[in-house]
Design brief:
- By secondary structure, the chain is α+β, with helices and mostly antiparallel strands.
- It has one domain: Protein Transport Mog1p, Chain A (3-Layer(aba) Sandwich).
- About 20% of the residues lie in helices and about 35% in strands.
- It is built from 4 helices and 12 strands.
- The strands form 2 sheets. The protein has an 8-stranded antiparallel β-sheet with strand order 1-5-6-7-11-10-9-8. A 4-stranded mixed β-sheet has the order 2-12-4-3.
């Protein structure tokens, strides 16, 4: 099924004006407060309205639509945020406690694209090194921009599509969603790179379960 929800409320979004600062610099003794820009770990997240999808909580940003593809059990396979002609696909994965994995994942993505005949270019973005590529699809050539953020025992991967892939300046509301994203990693040990579990919001899962229960009776009538 596809669950689509318009996020139309006002939301507070903290933007980091120091986008060029080296993100992996050693923390100083004064850097004990919550970061000014996400994705946030659950323990550091500021309080604001979000759509709870389990391991990911997505902030409410006006005119951004959240499209979720889930199986009949309510387990989510794909999360895509849409604003106009631009989209941002999100994924969250387990990572080791000691180090990030985005550098390795990025190289694997680049190699995979190369094997498929698409050249990828590394560029510097708000979160460090990103990957840009132009791929051929049934609808023609499509620009993609891969963004990775390493957190405490997790990694968020975002894939921009549309003009936002080639021109970050137009990412606007989608970028604010990424900045306000919250990761609920949980305490359970997981293999590195395993996708963290995502689920439908409770009210949507209940509606889906009710629809499945009534379907057999309708067939018998």
């Amino acid at each position: 099924m596809i669950f689509s929800r318009k996020r139309a409320g006002e939301a507070r979004h903290a933007r980091d004006e120091r986008a060029d600062e080296v993100l992996d610099a050693p923390e100083s003794e004064e850097s004990t407060s919550a970061p000014s820009r996400g994705p946030y770990d659950l323990a550091e997240a500021p309080d604001e309205p979000r759509l709870d999808l389990g391991s990911l909580q997505i902030p409410a940003v006006p005119d951004v639509e959240v499209r979720v593809q889930a199986d009949p059990q309510g387990v989510i396979q794909q999360v895509v945020l849409v604003h106009g002609d631009n989209a941002l696909q999100l994924g969250v994965f387990a990572a080791p406690r000691s180090e990030g994995i985005w550098d390795e994942v990025r190289e694997e993505i680049r190699q995979s694209l190369y094997n498929d005949g698409a050249a990828a270019q590394e560029v510097q973005g708000d979160y460090g090194t990103e990957l840009k590529a132009r791929v051929r699809t049934p609808d023609g050539l499509t620009d993609l921009r891969f963004v990775g953020i390493d957190g405490p025992r997790w990694m968020v991967r975002g894939v921009y599509q549309g003009e936002a892939a080639s021109n970050p300046a137009v990412a606007g509301p989608l970028a604010r969603c990424l900045e306000g994203l919250v990761v609920d990693r949980g305490q359970e040990a997981k293999p590195v790179r395993e996708p963290l579990p995502l689920r439908l919001p409770r009210e949507v899962a209940e509606q889906q379960a009710a629809a499945q229960q009534t379907a057999p009776g309708q067939r018998e009538a």
